[in-house]
Amino acid sequence: MKFKQLLLLMSWLALVTTGCTDNCRQVRTYRKQIPVKVTLEELRKPVVSTAPQQLIEPGKIYAKDNYLFIVEVKKGIHVIDNANPSSPKFISFLPIPGNVDLAVADNTLYADSYIDVVALDISNPAAIKEAGRVESGFSYGQVGRTSWSYDNQTRTINDYKQEITTETFDTDCEGNYGFIPYPIALYWFGRAYLQSDFVNFSVGSKSNSGTTSPSTTGQGGSMARFAIMNNQLYVVNSSVMQLFDISTLSKPVKGKTINLGWGGIETIFPYQDKLFIGAQDGMHIYDASTPTDPKQLSLYRHIRSCDPVVVQGNYAYVTLRGGGFCGGAQNVLDVVDISNPSMPTLAKSYPMDGPYGLGVDFPNLFVCEGQKGLKVLKMTDATNLTQVQSFGDMNAYDVIPLRNTLMLIGKDGLYQYDYTNPTNLRQLSKIAVQPAY
User: Fold this and answer.
1) Which of 216-220, 287-291, 410-414 has the highest mean pLDDT?
2) Which residues contact 4 (CB under 8 A, 6 or more apart)?
3) 105-to-13, 95, 203, 227, 248 alpha-carbon distances in Å
4) Distance of alpha carbon 188 from its chain centroid, rounded?
5) Nearest residue to 397 via CA among 367, 364, 430, 356
6) Are 330 and 295 in contact (CB under 8 A)?
7) Distance between CA atoms of 323 and 63, rounded to whole angstroms?
8) In whole angstroms, what is the distance from residue 297 CA to residue 286 CA?
């Protein structure tokens, strides 16, 4: 009997040993974060135009006159001749480390470069050069799912870059291995990347923003962190608004620093003499009638979510997107009555699928919904918005409606549409991204 038990035990051990030594392998492709250090000497090399480059990771967009500027996330800015939206032409590329946002006044382009703000002379778009530079005062920043920080002792920026990596893993033949690349949705500029998905400017022109700036500005999307009004450049980060005097366009001078609260500040939109600031807890309204010293008028609170803002007349249009780092669960478009900016009130809320940026050219309101495309709404009556068209065949992150041309940026590239007939948008062109791997 004991012999039989011993035989059974030895047989079981043999089976276990065999199972443990199965040698199976799986190949996985994933995004890998690699630490990057940038010294101040590297950061402050003068910016000059280089040869055009392919779009790989498009960020924010900005239009000025016949030119279009597209951010290549944390790498620089693409300069495009858009005189003919049906045939946009790349002119040059501006290598700017850590760049995320931009705005333009006359022939000067302002761009962030980690802790700095750079002023660039764009009077000749084919040969742009640095004209001035000033420290922003920001010592950290959040860009999608990565963040950077400045170490004052070592005078170094500590950042991360994303790389597509393919590696072979040993598994237990059941598909289990010790590394799971991005098992949940992660965000890059508000765009969700799932495990299988590898493939801030509202400075509006005078005609639609109502600003009285003596300089002519361009127009950006609703995801702006930069805004220009009355010789002031306003820049927001997660908890602070930093002012820069740009009376001398090429020589920005750092001005007042305004604490905006606990954090979660995302966007800024100038309208007439007000600044509308989108945050994860609500919409802040500031009176900027004294441009160098804005004062808070009110805070329209909402559930925690991501919320770019645009304004038209007596109403602010706020998209609220829940999930992920945005928090909350609602996906709606709030129409807020701001006829009394000291007491904003909700006029009506419209359900959405997952809204991102939005743009207004009365009576048209364009709302981006990420991988679900674009919605075109008629806004003649703010409390009775009606959908006139929708697109689901592109990834829509933010838009600029300008002179009947809609410029739309998303994960898969830049689209341009003629919206002369808003019930039947006509695609003019597309600049596709080049896969990063």
Assistant:
1) 287-291
2) none
3) 77, 20, 9, 10, 11
4) 8
5) 356
6) no
7) 31
8) 5
pLDDT digits (tens, 9 = 90+) for 370-413: 989 999 999 999 999 999 999 888 899 999 999 999 999 999 99
Residue 216 burial by Cβ neighbours in a 10 Å radius (0-12, 13-18, 19+): middle
Q: From CA 339, how far away is CA 141, in angstroms rounded?
A: 34
The CA R_g of the chain, rounded to the nearest whole Å, is 25
Round to whole Å and give the CA distance between 116 and 29. Answer: 35
Burial 78-116 (b: 16+ CB within 10 A, else e): bbbbbeebeebebbbbbbbbbbbbbbbbbbbbbbbbbbb
CATH topology of domain 39-141+199-432: Methylamine Dehydrogenase; Chain H (2.130.10)
Q: Which pLDDT value is given to residue 379?
A: 94
Cβ contact 115:136 at 8 Å: yes
- Distance between CA 291 and CA 274 in Å, rounded? 10
List Cβ neighbours of 342 (8 Å cut-off, separation of 6 or more).
285, 297, 298
- Given a contact cutoff of 8 angstroms between Cβ atoms, the answer to whether 56 and 434 are in contact is yes
Phi-psi region at 14: left, alpha or beta (left = phi > 0; alpha = psi -120 to 50): alpha
For residue 93, CA distances in Å to 114, 182, 189, 378, 434 come to: 18, 32, 21, 37, 15
- The pLDDT confidence band at residue 18, using thresholds 50, 70 and 90, is very low
SS3 string, the chain, reads: CHHHHHHHHHHHHHHHHHHHCCCEEEEEEEEEEEEEEEEHHHHCCCCECECCCCCCCEEEEEEECCEEEEEECCCEEEEEECCCCCCCEEEEEEECCCCCCEEEECCEEEEEECCEEEEEECCCCCCCEEEEEEECCCCEEEECCEEEEEECCCCEEEEEEEEEEEEEEEECCCCCCCCCCCCCCEEECCEEECCCCCCCCCCCCHHHHCCCCCCCECEECCCCCEEEECCEEEEECCCEEEEEECCCCCCCEEEEEEECCCCCEEEEEEECCEEEEEECCEEEEEECCCCCCCEEEEEEECCCCECCEEEECCEEEEEEECCHHHCCCCEEEEEEECCCCCCCEEEEEEECCCCCCEEEECCEEEEECECCCEEEEECCCCCCCEEEEEECCCCECEEEEECCEEEEEECCEEEEEECCCCCCCEEEEEEECCCCC
